[in-house]
Design brief:
DNA polymerase, domain 1, 8-stranded mixed β-sheet, single chain, 281 residues, alpha/beta, globular, TIM Barrel
Length: 281
């Protein structure tokens, strides 16, 4: 099994990088990508935990905004960790999350919801990229909502009155940074319409010009019809087709390896990076 989209406690997952590697080994995965939001901080621990035949793909899921305000997530895989431009982009995106969180909390408090930034910090693992899942966890801890999933369904989705965007690169800027750093770019859950506004088919032309390598087609948040539309776009544009779990541990219902990428598609994707960076024990 090849799972190219997972998260750890370095962003909004509940498994440490070591725990995630151990889980992948126990479940018989062949290739595991760790793609925490806007950070590479879990890479070293994952590398240290690696053993056996498991191959490790290091990456990040970059939070993007189109010029007209549509939220897009771009998976950057196999890029050079030491690339300065890439690390600056990730740092600036992380920094934009703090004022966003303050504003969301301010909107909630204005409606009498019991939440504070200290509450969010209390449930966020030290060093983790700040995000809405931590706000959800704080709301659960304060008894405002029953679960993280319920918090997103009722309060934190992209169309919610509490939702606030944050400073982020455009998808084209993210793709160019990933490719410049020697990596490959795969757009994540592009047609997950229940999350809010999504791209349309014509948007992929600009992304392809920027150097997009693949589309995450098989994902829990895509309906069968959405998967077929994305698969058709990938074939038409000659892009790699991936499937992934978007695993977050107990933070979401997604199970590790519930969707996967074929070996043929993975080999093609890896070949499009400028250097072999898959980590082996």
């Amino acid at each position: 099994m090849i799972d190219l989209h997972t998260h750890t406690t370095c962003s909004d997952g509940t498994d440490t990088p070591r725990e995630l590697v151990n889980k992948a080994l126990s479940q018989g995965l062949n290739v595991l990508a760790i793609t925490d939001h806007d950070t590479t901080s879990g890479w070293n621990e994952a590398r240290q935990a690696l053993r056996g035949d498991l191959e490790l793909v290091l990456g990040a899921e970059i939070s993007c905004l189109t010029d007209d305000g549509i939220s897009v997530h771009m998976l950057g895989l196999l890029f050079d960790e030491a690339d300065v431009e890439m690390q600056v982009l990730l740092e600036e995106t992380r920094d934009g999350r703090i004022p966003r969180m303050r504003k969301m909390i301010e909107l909630m408090r204005a409606e009498g919801i019991n939440i504070s930034l200290d509450d969010v910090e209390a449930v966020k693992p030290i060093g983790a990229t700040l995000g809405r899942p931590h706000l959800a966890d704080a709301l659960v801890r304060n008894g405002v909502i029953a679960s993280r999933d319920e918090a997103f369904q009722e309060l934190l989705h992209n169309e919610s009155r509490f939702y606030v965007t944050h400073a982020a690169p455009t998808p084209v800027e993210a793709i160019r940074a990933i490719r410049s750093a020697g990596g490959v770019a795969v757009i994540a859950h592009a047609f997950a319409s229940h999350r809010g506004k999504i791209l349309v088919s014509d948007d992929f032309q600009e992304l392809c010009k920027a150097g997009l390598n693949g589309i995450e087609v098989d994902h829990r948040d895509h309906s069968p019809a959405e998967r077929e539309m994305l698969r058709a776009i990938a074939i038409e544009k000659n892009l790699v087709i991936t499937g992934s779990s978007d695993y977050h541990g107990t933070g979401k219902m997604n199970s590790l390896g519930e969707n996967w990428t074929s070996l043929e598609q993975w080999h093609r994707l890896e070949s499009e990076s400028n250097q072999r960076r898959v980590v082996k024990a």
